[in-house]
Design goal:
This protein is of the alpha+beta class and 490 residues long. 35% of the residues lie in helices and 26% in strands. Strands 6, 10, 11, 14, 15, 18, 19, 20 and 21 form a nine-stranded mixed sheet that branches. It has a five-stranded mixed β-barrel with strand order 1-2-3-5-4. Strands 7-9-8 form a three-stranded antiparallel sheet, with no helix packed on it.
C-alpha cells in the first residue's frame, strides 16, 4: 500500500486533472436519487428491470478486463455497480476506472440480479459528486487505533458499520425517553446553558465571559434549579434533555460534557420517581432490545420491576461489612473507613457524609449488577433533597445503579426556603474551607421557593451511561460522537 502522503498527492493530481478538463466534482449542489439503496433490495421484485438512480460512497472496486464492479454505500445499505466499456463508451469508462475508494458518485442504470443472485445496478451514466483525497481504512482491518477512532470519528463511522449502528441505537434510546415522558403529559422545556450562578449538583463549573454585559458566566452543571423555578411558576410536569458541563476528570465513565435528562413532577416524591425510573429505563431498553433483558459485559440484566431497594447504610453494612449505625461523628466514621481499607489521607478532615459516600463507592457500587435503588443519603451531601420525616439527618434521595454503574440521582425535592437557605449556608462554609464542589448560595432560587413550590419529585439520568449499558460498551467515549481529548501531537 502506498504511503498516505503519496496517496494524497496521487488523488490530488486526479482532482486537478479533472478541473483542467472542465469538471469540478465539488460543483454539484444536489443530485436526483430515485431510491435509497435499501429500497433496491427490499423492493427488488417490483424494481427489477427498471432504471434507477442511487448515490453513495464507493467502498470497493474490482476490475475485470472491459468491466468494473464497484460497491456503492449510502446510509441505508450497499449495492453492487456494474460498469462496462461497451455501455459507457471509452471516455466515460476510463473516468469510471479512475475513481478511487471513498469517492462519492451518483449512478443511473437498470436494476438486475447477477447469476450469483447479487442485486446490481448496470451503470448507464454516473457523476462524480465529491472526490475523496484521503483513502479509507484498509478494508479488512478497518480503523483499529482507539484514540484515532475518537479523534477522527468520521473515519470510524465510515469504516465500522457496528459503530454507525451503535449511534442509531443511541438515537432510539433518546427518542424512547422523550416519547415515554410526553405520553405522560410531561412538557419538554429548555433552560439556560449559560448561567450567572451555577447549581444543581456538586461539581466544578467551566467559566466564560460575556463581553457586552461584562460579566462572568458559567456553563451549567445541571438544569435543576431552573426546572424547579418552572414548577413554582405553575407547570406540574417538566423535563429537559440537554448537555451539561462539569470541570472534572476524564475516565471510562466521565466526560466533561455529557447529556443529562432531568424530570420534575409536582405532588410526587422519591417513591414516585423510583416507579418513573423503572418505567422510563425499561422503555429505553425496549427501544433497542425489544425486551426488558439485556447483556452488559457478560452479565444478563433484567429490568423487570420492582427493582431492589436498599438504604445506603444497609448496603455499606451488607457489602462492605462496615456498620455505621449509631455513629454520629465524622472522626469515628473515618476510623471505621480506614479499618475497612480506605486511605486515611483521602479522608482527613472530611465530613461524615463524605466518608459514607466513599465507603459506598468502594464497597457497594461494584456489587450492584442488577438494577438497584440505593436510598436515604445524608443531608450533608444532599443539599437539595427533603429530609426523612423519621430521621432528620437523612434525606429522601436515591441513586439507581445498573451493571455496577450509577445512572442517576433523584430526590423528594426540598421546598422549604428556610431549610434550603441553611443548607446553602452550610455548603458555603464547606466551600470556604476548601471544597471546590460545594453548592453556591443562590438567592434567586430561594426567592422562588418563598413563593411556594408544591411537594415535588425530581429525577436526573445520565443518558451517556445508559447508552453505554444498553449497547454493551465498557467506555463512555464509545457512545459520544466527539469525546473531549487532549490536543494531538500531529
Amino acid at each position: 500500500m502506498s504511503h498516505p502522503v503519496d496517496e494524497y498527492q496521487r488523488r490530488l493530481a486526479k482532482l486537478n486533472q479533472l478541473k483542467e478538463q472542465g469538471q469540478d466534482p465539488f460543483g454539484h449542489h444536489s443530485c436526483a436519487r430515485t431510491h435509497s439503496i435499501a429500497q433496491l433490495h427490499s423492493d427488488f421484485a417490483q424494481l427489477e428491470g427498471q432504471v434507477v438512480s442511487v448515490a453513495g460512497r464507493i467502498v470497493a472496486l474490482r476490475e475485470h478486463g472491459k468491466s468494473t464492479f464497484a460497491d456503492l454505500q449510502d446510509a441505508s445499505a450497499t449495492v453492487q455497480i456494474y460498469a462496462q466499456l461497451d455501455v459507457l463508451g471509452e471516455d466515460d469508462y476510463t473516468h469510471f476506472q479512475d475513481l478511487d475508494l471513498g469517492d462519492i458518485i451518483v449512478v443511473e442504470g437498470e436494476l438486475f440480479q447477477t447469476r450469483s443472485d447479487e442485486v446490481t445496478v448496470r451503470c448507464a451514466a454516473f457523476l462524480l459528486l465529491a472526490k475523496a483525497l484521503r483513502p479509507l481504512p484498509e478494508k479488512f482491518h478497518g480503523l483499529q487505533d482507539q484514540e484515532l477512532r475518537y479523534r477522527q470519528r468520521y473515519v470510524d463511522l465510515l469504516a465500522n458499520e457496528q459503530v454507525r449502528e451503535l449511534f442509531r441505537a443511541r438515537s432510539r434510546i433518546i427518542q424512547a425517553a422523550r416519547d415515554y415522558l410526553s405520553q405522560r403529559d410531561f412538557l419538554e422545556v429548555e433552560t439556560p446553558m449559560l448561567q450567572p450562578l451555577y447549581g444543581g449538583a456538586a461539581a466544578r463549573p467551566f467559566t466564560t465571559y460575556h463581553n457586552t454585559l461584562q460579566m462572568q458566566l458559567y456553563m451549567r452543571i445541571a438544569p435543576e434549579l431552573y426546572l424547579k423555578r418552572l414548577i413554582v411558576g405553575g407547570y406540574e410536569r417538566v423535563f429537559e434533555m440537554g448537555r451539561v458541563f462539569r470541570n472534572e476528570g476524564i475516565d471510562t465513565r466521565h466526560n466533561p460534557e455529557y447529556t443529562l435528562l432531568e424530570v420534575y413532577e409536582a405532588y410526587a416524591d422519591y417513591e414516585d420517581m423510583m416507579t418513573l425510573t423503572e418505567g422510563l429505563v425499561g422503555a429505553m431498553c425496549q427501544a433497542v432490545h425489544g425486551a426488558l433483558k439485556f447483556t452488559y459485559q457478560g452479565h444478563e440484566i433484567n429490568l423487570t420491576p420492582p427493582w431492589q431497594r436498599i438504604s445506603l447504610l444497609e448496603a455499606i453494612r451488607e457489602y462492605g461489612g462496615v456498620d455505621l449505625s449509631g455513629i454520629e461523628s465524622a472522626e469515628a466514621a473515618r476510623e471505621q473507613a480506614v479499618a475497612a481499607g480506605l486511605e486515611r489521607q483521602t479522608l482527613e478532615g472530611q465530613s461524615l457524609g463524605y466518608v459514607i459516600d466513599k465507603l459506598a463507592d468502594r464497597f457497594v457500587q461494584p456489587q450492584l449488577i442488577q438494577p438497584t435503588f440505593i436510598t436515604d443519603y445524608p443531608v450533608e451531601i444532599s443539599p437539595l433533597a427533603k429530609r426523612k420525616p423519621d430521621n432528620a439527618q437523612l434525606t429522601e434521595r436515591f441513586e439507581p445503579f445498573i451493571g455496577g454503574i450509577e445512572i442517576g440521582n433523584a430526590f423528594s425535592e426540598l421546598n422549604d426556603p428556610l431549610d434550603q437557605r441553611e443548607r446553602f449556608e452550610a455548603q458555603a462554609a464547606a466551600r470556604a474551607a476548601g471544597d471546590e464542589e460545594a453548592h453556591p448560595l443562590d438567592e434567586d432560587f430561594i426567592r422562588a421557593l418563598e413563593y411556594g413550590m408544591p411537594p415535588t419529585g425530581g429525577l436526573g439520568l445520565g443518558i451517556d451511561r445508559l447508552v453505554m449499558l444498553l449497547t454493551d460498551q465498557p467506555n463512555l467515549r464509545e457512545v459520544i460522537f466527539f469525546p473531549l481529548l487532549r490536543p494531538s501531537d500531529e
